Amino acid sequence: MSTLRPDGRPRIPPNQVVTQKFPVMTAGTPKTADKETWSLTLDGDVEQAITLDWAGFQALPQREFSADLHCVTRWSKLGTLWRGVAVSVLADLVRPVADPVYVQARADGNYTANLRLVDMLSDKAFVATEFDGKPLSVEHGGPARLVVPDLYLWKSAKWLRGLHFSPYDYKGFWEKLGYHNYGDPWKEQRYRG
Ligand SMILES: Nc1nc2c(c(=O)[nH]1)N[C@H]1C(S)=C(S)[C@@H](COP(=O)(O)O)O[C@H]1N2
Ligand SMILES: [Mo]
């Protein structure tokens, strides 16, 4: 695995260590949904809110994504392979109206994370239902999770159940507890202050 990106810049953010494993990082023990009961609600300041069930989500254009993952606890996992739907496809479905648009990712177990929509467009974020060619395991967020590779992995909410679009940057679960509001691994935005 190359440790340089194609543009010659380093592939591993400062003070991260590459692991071949895929650690499970979960706060609490959320009660998660199965495919029969799962749904994804896209709402907030949008032209048309929508709730998708599993079949509705699967009917959207699915794609493969490869991503380097960087956890704030200093492990990085390079070249992971996912399948899912780009957040830009989901945003186009509901058409957010705020400017700027913030996104609150909402997950089972009252987990939330706050993001800016602009950082999730152009294939920079996706909702994944497969990892490594297999259905996403429950421990890693199955049936569906958010993946935002450009930000520390706490932003990538597992057991995703909603994206709430709004002009307000509501702090998420870890952000309220002192993690950085933005979380750029290349700038080592680990904790606030
Ligand atoms: N719903 C939910 N999503 C979550 C978490 C969580 O506790 N609950 N933990 C976050 C954190 S801190 C990290 S590092 C990643 C870990 O993902 P993994 O367990 O698949 O490695 O999930 C993120 N998404
Ligand atoms: Mo984390």
From TrEMBL:
Membrane-spanning intervals of the chain: none
Q: Note the Pfam families from the entry.
A: Oxidored_molyb
Record-annotated Oxidoreductase molybdopterin-binding domain positions? 29-174
| Lineage of the species this protein comes from | Bacteria, Pseudomonadati, Pseudomonadota, Alphaproteobacteria, Rhodobacterales
Entry-linked SUPFAM superfamilies: Oxidoreductase molybdopterin-binding domain
Q: What's the name of the protein?
A: DMSO/TMAO reductase YedYZ molybdopterin-dependent catalytic subunit
